[in-house]
Amino acid sequence: MATKKGAENWKTKQWFDVHTPEVLGDEVIGSIPAASESAVIGRVLKVSLSWVTHNPAHSFLSVSLLITKAQNNVANSEIKMLENQFSHIHSLVRRHADAIYTYDKIALKDNKTAVVKLFISTRSKVPYSKQHALRKEVSAMLNEYAQTHSRDELIKSVLSNELQSQGLERLHKVAPVAKLEIRKLEF
């Protein structure tokens, strides 16, 4: 009689509880099976941020968690990426307005790098020179912010909309801006 190899493999696996980073509250968000502790390290879980933070304002954001350490059936993770849904970003674009996308690679205070992709929506059509000035102002703001803040502080300010509100204040001096949103934040 033939044996079921898949079923036998499944029985040997153990379950690991995945914990979020301390920035997100160090909670258990689920369990994953693996044959060994080393097989868990390097996996990436993508979940809705509102499910982790229990904040409905974060329902359009998803977070990718990279498992960095596994021990005693506990898997610890760190944030690899925060991403806004494509449909939410494009719902902010209005007629007779401009949508401006930016891409900035910044070096943080704790010697880590981050890639910040932003979306800027203007209140009306603006000339290309103003669009260029808006991109330049955003880059300057992000570089100034990165010199004095660590990775965890950057994540906290993005989740509390502090960074976006500071950016709006600076951008209003250049051109009339309706929205400033984080499209993607990668580490």
* N-to-C span: 51 Å
Shape, per Cα inertia axes: elongated
Helix fraction, binned, reads 25-40%
CATH topology of the largest domain: Tetrahydropterin Synthase, Chain A
Question: Number of DSSP helices?
Answer: 7
Largest sheet: 8 strands, mixed
Provide the low-confidence segments as ranges: none
Strand fraction band? 35-45%
- The CATH top-level class label of the largest domain: Alpha Beta
Mean pLDDT: 92
Describe this structure in words.
The protein is an alpha+beta fold and 187 residues long. The chain has helices at 5-12, 37-40, 49-53, 86-91, 128-148, 151-159, 162-171, and strands at 14-19, 28-34, 44-48, 61-71, 74-84, 99-107, 113-122, 177-186. It has two domains: 14-84, no CATH class; 86-186, 2-Layer Sandwich (Tetrahydropterin Synthase, Chain A). Strand 1 (14-19) and strand 2 (28-34) form a beta hairpin. The protein is elongated and about 65 Å long. The N and C termini lie far apart (51 Å). The model has no long low-confidence stretch (mean pLDDT 92).
